[in-house]
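Sorry to interrupt, but I need a hand with the structure work. I would like you to pick a protein and set down its sequence and fold. Please put the record directly below this note.
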Amino acid sequence: MAVPEAIIRPAVPADLAAVTEIFAHYVSQTVITFEQTPPTVAEWQRRLHDLADRGLPFLVADLDGDVAGYAYAGPWRPKPAYRHTVENSIYLAPDQTGRGLGGALLGALLTGCAQAGVRQMIAVIADTGSGASTALHKRFAFTHAGRLTGVGYKHGRSIDTVLMQRALTTDQNG
């Protein structure tokens, strides 16, 4: 049986219930995110509008009308000199991993960020021992930028983060 191909498209408010459900799984069941309380649909709506106001992409992988995953880029830090640097977030529905959706979302996210004038993208990856997220970012030319040891504590364990970085442009003016 052929696997349907996902359409990567901008998120709309109607997608946010599915986004909320996907992320809630990772908040409650994993150490992939350091969030401990899943955001509500209303909080996701605020995030969607904030990113749109900043001209930054928030994308979903639409698989036959269902949201199979999402990705967005948000400000790396609030200080003005960081305005051209973003941090990415990519999450897939638990039953949709291993199908290439993460790569499709990351590729489209990189394109959208470059079009928005982003110069650097940072990935902050919880070191869970899996390596899948690190491998995904390496495939898209991210390089290792550092490790923060024991900076997270969730579900009774300390977690390191791996920092990866990719330039989207070589123009570093203004």
Q: What stands out?
A: The radius of gyration is 16 Å. The beta strands are 7-10, 58-63, 66-75, 85-92, 120-126, 143-154, 157-167.
